[in-house]
Amino acid sequence: MLILAIETSCDETSAAVIKDGRKILSNVVASSVSLHKKTGGIIPERAAREQLKSIIPVIETAMENGKCKMENIDCIATTTGPGLIGSLLVGVETAKTLSLIWNKPLVPVNHLIGHIYANWLKPDSPTSRHPDIPYLPAIALVVSGGHTDLVLMKDHAKLEWLGGTRDDAAGEAFDKTARLLGLGYPGGPAIATEAAKWKTINDKWKMTLPRSLLNEDNFDFSFSGLKTAVLRETEKLKTNQLINQLTIPLLAYQVQEAITDVLVEKTLKAVKKYKVPTLLVAGGVAANSRLREKFLSSIHNSKFNIQFFVPPPPLCTDNATMIGAAAFYNYKPVPWQKVIANSGMTITDRQ
Ligand code: KG4
Ligand code: ZN
Q1: What is the Cα–Cα distance from 117 to 98, expressed in whole angstroms?
Q2: What is the whole-number distance in angstroms between the Cα of residue 276 and the centre of ligand 2?
Q3: Which ligand sits closest to the CA of 191?
Q4: Which atom of ligand 1 is the closest one to the Cα of 171?
Q5: What is the DSSP-derived secondary structure letter of residue 302?
Q6: Could you list which residues have their CB under 5 Å from ion ligand 2?
Q7: 137 prior amide bond cis, ω within 30
Q8: I need a labelling partner for 202 at 20 to 30 A (CA). Which of 104, 231, 329, 342 fits?
Q9: Per-residue pLDDT tens listing for the chain (351 residues)
Q10: In ligand 1, which atom is closest to the CA atom of 316?
Q11: Where are the alpha helices (DSSP H) in 118-246?
Q12: Of the bound ligands, which one is closest to the alpha carbon of residue 29?
């Protein structure tokens, strides 16, 4: 089955052609991130206006790169939420129009569930020890700019939400602390780059940032305390004129350690409790190499006998390939008249 998938939930405009839920025939991602770098964050109206310009060329290029014609496509899939409503509308209304004029079935996909399905795509991640298809049940950690969710995936379309963030998402914590450190947008990669410098500096200066809810008996997260702690530390350093090439990498390193410690520990607690054979990590923050490294070493050290999947970094951040994979494994076409962009829907709405 050939699926033309569309993803426009945030600032990316992406289209992909996916064969049988796993093979990527094409993947085109146009990002307006350079515009948002100037403003230090996404301005939804600007993102949607850029997407209006790029949606048709992106789809055309994805079809060309996949050597596909309209008649070869079996189905159209599109992200319907959660996301920025203006951005979602661009992809959803385009997908509905194509479904109508090409007379193809249309499958709506939840963006967060889409992230999880990036783990079904080939080629498998170089860090994955199992270049195979994930076995279910699985624990899935979805960590993105807007969400941090732990999910028990009993089967396709059988997801049970175990917990999530009570305030900021993990990606948001990276973005907001990066902003406090003057590192620009998006914050995750910027923090990771600075943190890597700290390793080479290897100074003895120690600092500990909070790891909220780490020892609580639940699967919830909280990152707003971390942001406040970084604000306090940066203010102290500014007062003492100590914001410099030593302290920024130190803070970035500590932020990355604090976020990744909590994500790994709580996720492995869920793996242990539900005794699942598979762990799936997904979403933009899953591109973080320290997080990937910590998962691998913790799984190894705790002698968990599980398959660990994390997509290659370009498939962790928003893209349409994951939407095509999710649509294949959850193939439920909906008449185009009934498909609506819904900015607020979450994994919990899909149980
Ligand atoms: O999944 P995604 O592309 O968009 C949303 O659905 O939100 O995730 C974007 C988030 C941003 O917060 C960004 O800072 C974070 O993922 N991110 C990273 C890395 N790359 C992207 N966070 C940490 N380390 C990275 N290498
Ligand atoms: Zn996303």
Answers
A1: 24
A2: 25
A3: 1
A4: 12
A5: T
A6: 144, 318
A7: yes
A8: 231
A9: 999 999 999 999 999 999 999 999 999 999 887 877 777 778 899 999 999 999 999 999 999 999 999 999 999 999 999 999 999 999 999 999 999 999 999 999 999 999 999 999 986 445 544 457 899 999 999 999 999 999 999 999 999 999 999 999 999 999 999 999 999 889 999 999 999 998 767 666 667 899 999 999 999 999 999 999 999 999 988 888 888 888 899 999 999 999 999 999 999 999 999 999 999 999 999 999 999 999 999 999 988 889 999 999 999 999 999 999 999 999 999 999 999 999 888 887 654
A10: 1
A11: 170-180, 187-201, 224-239
A12: 1
The helix or strand, by DSSP H or E, that contains position 138, with its residue range, turns out to be: strand 138-143
Angle in degrees, CA 314, 318, 323, rounded to 5: 105
Looking up tokens 């190499």 gives 289
Beta strands in the chain (DSSP E): 2-7, 12-19, 23-31, 75-81, 106-110, 138-143, 148-155, 158-164, 278-282, 307-309
Torsion of CA 264, 270, 274, 277, to 10 degrees: -20
Ligand 1 centre to CA of 171 (Å) is 5
- pLDDT value, residue 130: 46
Q: Are 254 and 177 in contact (CB under 8 A)?
A: no
Pocket of ligand 1 (CB under 6 A): 10, 144-146, 171, 174-175, 186-189, 192, 283-285, 287-288, 317-318
| Atom 19 in ligand 1: residue holding the nearest Cα | 188
Q: Which amino acid is at 290?
A: R
From CA 121, how far away is CA 3, in angstroms rounded?
13
Of all ligands present, the nearest one to the C-alpha of 285 is: 1
